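Trying the structure run again after the queue cleared.
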Amino acid sequence: QVQLVESGGDLVQPGGSLRLSCAASGFTFSSYFMSWYRQAPGKEREWVAGITTSGGVTNYADSVKGRFTISRDNDKNTLYLQMNSLKPEDTDVYYCKRLNSWGQGTQVTVSS
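Done. Tokens:
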């Protein structure tokens, strides 16, 4: 059974940093493209970043480019999202995704 468990969300001040993790199990993690999405209440879920199986290619939404970094550790079956220079508009629930499977999300709040 596919399981994706996000962690690392927190309350942080504007300009601060957080690193999110997504622990994957129930499938061969290294064989799948992985993504991060985010969603605010009442809004559609928004794609944030994606990474290829080896981690060699990454891509980002324009809103986070230059501030966020997606990475993966295939030995640990874990996906990461390093978030720097956080802004209040980054406040959302963040989800990792594989094909049609989603985690439960982790809340990131950026506020002074």
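The chain has a mean pLDDT of 97. Worth checking whether this holds up in the mutant runs.
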